[in-house]
């Protein structure tokens, strides 16, 4: 099972798993972050608007996005919004994160994961290596296959 697994990543070339390893500063809620001028880590809950963080991207070190259920995809949108607006800090998916979702989460900009259940390294490697090409642009900057063909 994966506790600390590293492979190619989105922003800093590392795919990190955080199970019991806390960030230096615990993430505060969005409301608390907006009230605290000195916080550098924030947690977005389902349904909270990531655009509220845009004025603060230069000082944020961690944005943790909650995935209470694997079938709720709003966290993908939050990640992509933050990355496309220039956020370069750690972007962590926390909660009901399934191994087959991790490649898509990476495409949206996640580079850190705190799944509720352990991740099998062999299964994760197969999921990450499954497709050589992508079909559309995303926050990870990979070139879509159609652009490779037609430049």
What distinguishing features does this structure have?
151 residues; alpha/beta; Rossmann fold; six-stranded parallel sheet; 6 strands; 16% strand; UCP030820
Question: Can I get a quick summary?
Answer:
With 151 residues, the protein is α/β, with parallel strands linked by helices. It has helices at residues 30-35, 74-84, 102-108, 121-129, 145-150; strands at 16-17, 28-29, 41-44, 62-67, 90-95, 112-115.
Write structural notes for this entry.
The radius of gyration is 15 Å and the shape is globular. The protein has a six-stranded parallel beta sheet with strand order 1-6-5-4-3-2. The chain has one domain (16-150): 3-Layer(aba) Sandwich (Rossmann fold). It is 26% helix and 16% strand. Helix 2 links the parallel strand 4 (62-67) and strand 5 (90-95). It is built from five helices and six strands. The longest helix has 11 residues, at 74-84. With 151 residues, it is α/β, with parallel strands linked by helices. Helix 2 (74-84) packs parallel to helix 3 (102-108). This is DUF934 domain-containing protein. InterPro entries: UCP030820. Pfam families: DUF934.
Q: How many DSSP E strands?
A: 6
What CATH architecture do you see?
3-Layer(aba) Sandwich
- Please state the CA-atom Rg, rounded to the nearest Å: 15 Å
The number of domains:
1
List SSEs in N-to-C order.
Answer: EEHEEHEHEHH
Structural class designation: alpha/beta
Overall pLDDT: 80
Q: Roughly what percent helix? A: 25-40%
- Which spans of ≥5 residues are poorly predicted at pLDDT below 50? 1-14
Give the CA-CA distance, first to last residue: 41 Å
Strand content: 15-25%
State the name of the first-level CATH class.
Alpha Beta
Query: Given the structure, what is the number of helices?
Result: 5
Biggest sheet, in brief? 6 strands, parallel
Outline type: globular
Organism: Stakelama tenebrarum
InterPro entries: UCP030820
Protein name: DUF934 domain-containing protein
């Amino acid at each position: 099972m994966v506790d600390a697994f590293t492979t190619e990543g989105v922003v800093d070339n590392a795919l990190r798993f955080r199970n019991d390893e806390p960030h230096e500063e615990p993430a505060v809620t969005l409301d608390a972050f907006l009230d605290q001028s000195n916080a550098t880590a924030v947690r977005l809950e389902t349904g909270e608007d990531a655009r509220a963080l845009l004025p603060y991207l230069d000082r944020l070190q961690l944005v943790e996005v909650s995935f209470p259920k694997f079938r709720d995809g709003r966290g993908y949108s939050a990640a992509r919004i933050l990355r496309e607006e220039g956020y370069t800090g750690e972007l962590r998916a926390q909660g009901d994160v399934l191994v087959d979702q991790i490649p898509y989460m990476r495409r949206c900009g996640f580079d850190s994961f705190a799944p509720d259940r352990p991740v099998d390294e062999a299964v994760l490697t197969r999921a990450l290596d499954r497709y050589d090409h992508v079909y559309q642009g995303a926050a990870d900057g990979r070139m879509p296959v159609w652009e490779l063909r037609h430049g």
